[in-house]
Specification:
heterodimer, A: BirA Bifunctional Protein, domain 2, two-stranded antiparallel sheet, 9 strands, about 40% helix, elongated, B: alpha+beta, Phenylalanyl-tRNA Synthetase, Chain B, domain 3, 6 domains, 5-stranded antiparallel beta sheet, binds zinc ion
Chain lengths: ~350, ~800
Amino acid sequence: MGDIHDDVSRIEALFRSVLSTADSVEALQGVRVRFLGKKGEVTSLLKQLGSLPDDERPEAGRVLNELRDSMERSLAEKTRQYAGAQVTAREREEWIDVTLPGRGRPWGAFHPVAQVTQEAIDIFVSMGFSVAYGPEVEDDFHNFEGLNIPPHHPARDMQDTFYLENGLLLRTHTSPVEVRSMRKWGAPLRIIVPGKVFRRDSDQTHTPMFHQLEGLLVDENISLAHLKGCLEAFVNRIFGRPLKARYRGSYFPFTEPSIEMDVECVACSGRDPGCRICKGTGWLEISGLGMTHPNVIRAGGIDPVRYNGFAWGMGLDRIAMLKYGLNDLRVFFEGDLAFLNSKGERR
Amino acid sequence: MFASLNWLKELVDIPVDTPMLAQRLTDTGVEVEGLEVPVALFRGAVTARVVSIAIHPGRPDLFVLTVDAGKRKGVCVTAARNLEGGDVVPWGPPGCVLADGTEISCRDFQGVTSEGMVLSAEEIGLPGIADEYGILRMGEGFTPGEDARAALGLDDTVLELSITPDRGDLLSMVGLAREVSALFPEARYKGITPAIQPRASRLDGFEGITLTDSGCPFYALGALEGVNIKPSPMRARVRLLLSGMRPISNVVDATNLVMLLVGQPLHAFDDARLPGRDITVRLAREGEMILTLDGKTRVLDGEDLLITSGGKPVAVAGVMGGEESEISGDTTRVLLESAHFDSIKVSRASRKLGIPSEAAYRFSRFVDPCKAETALAVAMEMMASWGAGVPSGWIAAGEAAQKERKVALTSKVLGKIIGTGDLDMATAILERLGISTGDHDPSVRHYSIPSFRPDISIEEDLIEEVARIRGYDKVAAELPPVMHATGDITDRMRAERAVRSTAMARGYSEVVTYCFVSPQSIAALRFPGPDPRSSPVALSNPLSVDMSVLRTTLVPGLVQAVLKNISSGWRRAIRIFETGMVFFRRGREVEEVFKLGGCVCTGVDSRSPWGDQGTEDFHSVAADIEAIFASRGVAVDLVPGSEPFGHAGKTARVLADGRDVGYLSALKPEIESEMELPAPVFLFELDMGPLVHDGKATFGEVRKYPPVFRDISLVVKEGVYSSDVLALIRELGGPLLEEVRLFDIYKGKGIPEGHRSLAYTLAYRDPERTLRDDEVDQVQGRLRDQLAQRGIRLR
Ligand SMILES: [Zn+2]
């Protein structure tokens, strides 16, 4: 027997190399036999311990025992890995088809308008606006006169109204809630009003019922800059990226100045003259807005000299169409599951 | 409104190209919805004089023409019979392209080669321009050899404009020209100056004009003698067509062109057909009638303003003239009306009578009263220049001029709104709009508002003018200043969101259906008379009968959605829900109630790898209702109940914290078959009210000692409700009974016919100590005895 340390190093290197190629429980058993079995390499060395001089024997014994323990540990560890992959009879018996559809019901589906409404509200709430509601059946005062639209005013032609048998009407916009809210809460005030509105109109881009989001901010020293800031923040959040905005002069009886806000086409960014969404103009009408008319502030019981503000109204159905790439409004009100379930992941 | 760019250019120098003009108009509030070149494809035709006309030698139905286009002459064959030698016509030589895109070539007509063709109004693309059939005779004012497009005034661009209701002044070329001149500092407004100066005089044999109502503050009449009714000059007809109006005759066309030019509607009476020698403007008598020139008899009321003559109505003021005094082919003397009418009076009459005439449209939006005389002068001048008649006199009544109005603009408010309070800048812009001031004060100035801008009455109106012309892009965006309070979505929306997310998580799809439904869809649900759901509020002007009453229940919309899905091929289970208002009659008012409605249909194909476990039924829907309410901390119980449309054995009332909030019901089988529903349908409709008021959640104490469980099985008659049995067990179970849960229902072997077995597991617990088995056995035994004493059989 030469130097015990040489033998140990040699055997250990050999063991590591053989172990690394063993890839089954059986192969590992073979490795164990080869090194640690009755005629194994380490076993035979151990057997030779007796022939060593007394002064070398304890040291050699310690080294060999350490080697044996380390090999046992390595083998046990690797054997556990491979043994874990073994299939027991019980498991074979308990096999199931794991690819079956989950039992119970799949997730339902949100309505695009309701979903957009929720997202829009959350954006404005983050800017300090609170939700307000008003009735869907309105009277002439709140829907028209209180908003600076007297009877026979040509602005009434802008909105074809559904009247009820009792002389009341279905609100043509969510604006009546402005006056109601100002009277209830006074100034300063930040409200948003989501809700159904009704106009006597029906074609591919108009349904007799649709959804608006009205907003009103009343405070001291409010400017057009604030109006633009609010609405641009909203647009960028709801469409998920900064969009160019443009503002055009317009007319609403309840704002002065009155403005139409367009944003860059979400489909083509103004680069496709044949774009169906923006009809090649590159712009999409997104909201009618303006500084609240002093008469309306006054109708809300607030002093128009001290306070001023701005308001806007936007069609949520249209925003849903743009956000989800739809081109016919009418499907929104048919409850068609094939349509409602057709969307993939939320964008 | 359609505006010819060439016409506009006659009134204002425009220093920019057309796209830039359109852009600027749109940005400042006059939306340009379209820019169109009229009959864009038509090209290559020339004006030519017909030199000779001969009958085709081999085809007696055809004529052979020689035409002279100055440098070029040609031979054309035509079937048209309306030509005379000397007529100037459009000639399309070979290579000319017609309005429909057809290219013209030479064509042989039995030995005669036609070099192109002479053209009709249709072939040019202007079918409305001639009232005679055949080739377009262009009339006077054309020399042979001109390009026909240019000669007819078709080398033009038509702007399609959307004018907001506050800007009645822009419903005229003059008004538009003024607006354009304000948009570009380099633009120069030319306007119009009629050669005839209006001067009121007498009209021979005419008794005068009487104004009796404030709705007509001014009324002028101009007379034309020797009237010769014929078509207007060709270019005038083209201009009318490009402006969206139909040429009729020289007199009528002149009134229309002047209306388009100045904005003042005019009306021409055939003087000979007026019933009297006077004009009186008065309110109509209730029930008075007039035959308007559209051939309809109109019944008037006491608020309609009438033009009368000899006591008889001859026109509805500002709306439409009467047929009996209408201009006709044999009119020889015309009285031309130019008057100012109150916008509300006209608007009301126009809507009520259903006459949306161009005149009424303009009067409703306000017409500048100061333009009435100018318009009359321009019209008479135009008719005279066309040889349509000879102006012979002019009378007027009332006062056209208005009081001067001034509006103040302060630097402070202007600065607050647009970020700069520079009144010099504001003055420069306003003066271009005709709004002037002599003030130079840097903090406040008073501006004179011209009569054509009635829409400007307060400071904010001036600010809008400054802001829009200066450009809204000049204002930098900025978030509003400090919040005074946090934003809140409110309890109502929290409830809605909880309902939405719970329902969707449980497999329901969200739908939105119309608030108006058909009366039949409500009637189909068999509500008895006293049920408020039986009498929905009706719309007085519905789009269709299917959308003619306000829903009193969400059921019709939900059921319709189910039917729609099945008919479009959806075979699996349908689970839908909707939150929204239903509407009830409350005296003269309408009460709105916020409801949650749901509908589950087992589907045409309810097969599932899980067998029954995958099928919808009453109880699976009941669990959904429990979960939805639990999401807002509200506990529900189902108790036996009924609905007129509900299955008698499968309808429950839903109690939320003991209060009836609605129902869960299978649809009555009879209604199911009436509606041709191919699979069972379950419906629920619940008040959202209890969910809006959040049941504030609190937790009980932590339980330290374990419960002890005992089971009990009872045999009860069919028809006995489990909830009653459960209540009885609770009542009799004593203070240690913590929870009772039904775990089995059994019918069949060992259970008598008409009975079923209900098995419950009972949990006993003492909060203070661990219970011993023997004491629980004792309690359970006592319970069994008591149940047995009440005649309930134990298994
Ligand atoms: Zn686009």
